[in-house]
Amino acid sequence: MIEFPKNFLWGAATSAYQVEGNNFNSDWWPWEKKTGLTESGDACRSYELFREDYDIAKALGHNVHRLSVEWARIEPEEGIFSEKEIQHYKDVILALKERGIQPVVTLHHFTNPIWFFNIGGWENPKAAEYFRRFSEKIVSALKNDVHFWVTINEPMVYLYFAYLSGNWPPQKKSLLAANRALGNIIEAHVYSYRVINKIYKDNNLEKPLISIAHNMQAFVACRDNLKDKAAAFIRDKLFNRDIIKTLISRRSLDYIGLNYYSRSLVEVKRWGIMNFLGDVCESGHKSLKKNDMGWDIYPQGIYGLLTELKVFKLPIFILENGICAVDDNLKWEFIKEHLEYIHKAIGEGANVLGYIYWSLLDNFEWDKGFWPRFGLVEVDYNTYQRRVRESGKKFAEVCKTNRL
Ligand code: BGC
């Protein structure tokens, strides 16, 4: 049996667009109609059913819950804020508080208002200012009940799918556009960080803790040769470490929000920049168990990353870790093994504040639709009934006892 530090935070995450339903003012909505690939529709109907969801989280012993607010609901037209929707999110936060669950609130989780999209989205030179204004509005409304803020979810993943691979809106494939957007996203985070702190200070509230949710992969060299090892090192630097360094140098990171799912097995086929940045091993000779979307299950990766992150001397909060699997035994095995490695890293000095599983519920998995099942809780998309899985119950024991 292993025991976690006192006051460890335990919970699960959701994001607005993935669970609420009918976010028709967000850029994903027309993208769904245009591509016909997926349709979020009613999603999990959590816009109405959030109290029921939080009853479940409470029964499962969660003391923290990560959620996001939908910018497009709050500011459906440029500069026009909806008091009704702001009140909605106040009700959401209150519902968590009433159940003794601490909220961790994300301001941007992959989706943008359509008006923002139409003026160039994250490429617009004024993007950071728009995001600052939105942050100011919603943070002022929620400040009394929120201590942990996440400005932007997974900037690098978002940039990759929206501006490099061309999958997500605005479906660009341009390094130049990606770079412009990255610059503006960093600026937006810094502006938002500053305005959040100012609001708390002006209101004599305890300083909140603010970060991004940063997706890190375990880049593992396939072969014991210089080429693969150098490429793994470079990818770790570019994808994992650089943005953390940048935000620390801008004095805008109070903790490191870590999202971890999988490894990437680096095998450079030939000398060349793109090969160095992108080649992965495809032969399957080092194959591991996989989740339903084919991602390797590699629990030791989280240990490696937590160990590596110690140099930054900031607390680390695991904001996402999870698996989509219809095999519920595999889901529990995944959680258990990751928790064991997290515990080992803590024992060796990693300062980890808590663990948030992705996701509380099965939900809308972006361009994949509804089939990947990440939830501790199964959602029946015909009846919208929720049913706690065995893995969810086992995880609940950990949350309640602080032990595994
Ligand atoms: C994202 C979630 C997504 C999950 C599983 C994370 O990268 O933050 O929105 O559902 O991974 O793919």
Explain what you see.
- The protein has one domain: Alpha-Beta Barrel (TIM Barrel).
- The protein has 14 helices and ten strands.
- Helices cover 44% and strands 16% of the residues.
- α7 (127-142) runs parallel beside α9 (175-202).
- β5 (209-221), α10 and β6 (256-266) form a beta-alpha-beta unit.
- The longest helix is centred in the middle third of the chain and has 28 residues, at 175-202.
- The chain has 404 residues and is an alpha/beta fold.
- The relative contact order is 0.14.
- It has an eight-stranded parallel barrel with strand order 1-2-3-4-5-6-7-8, surrounded by six helices.
- Beta-D-glucopyranose (BGC) binds next to loops.
- Beta-D-glucopyranose binds next to loops.
In short:
By secondary structure, the chain is an alpha/beta fold.
Number of β-strand runs: 10
CATH class placement: Alpha Beta
* Average pLDDT metric: 98
Q: What is the distance, rounded to the nearest whole angstrom, between the alpha carbons of the first and last residues?
A: 6 Å
Assembly form of the protein = single chain
Topology of this structure?
Layout: E1 9-13, H1 16-19, H2 28-35, H3 46-59, E2 64-68, H4 71-74, H5 83-98, E3 102-108, H6 114-118, H7 127-142, E4 148-153, H8 155-164, H9 175-202, E5 209-221, H10 226-249, E6 256-266, H11 273-278, H12 300-309, E7 316-321, H13 328-347, E8 352-358, E9 377-379, E10 386-388, H14 390-401
Parallel strand pairs: 1-2, 1-8, 2-3, 3-4, 4-5, 5-6, 6-7, 7-8
Antiparallel strand pairs: 9-10
Helix pairs in contact: 7-9, 8-9, 12-13, 13-14
Bound molecules: beta-D-glucopyranose (BGC).
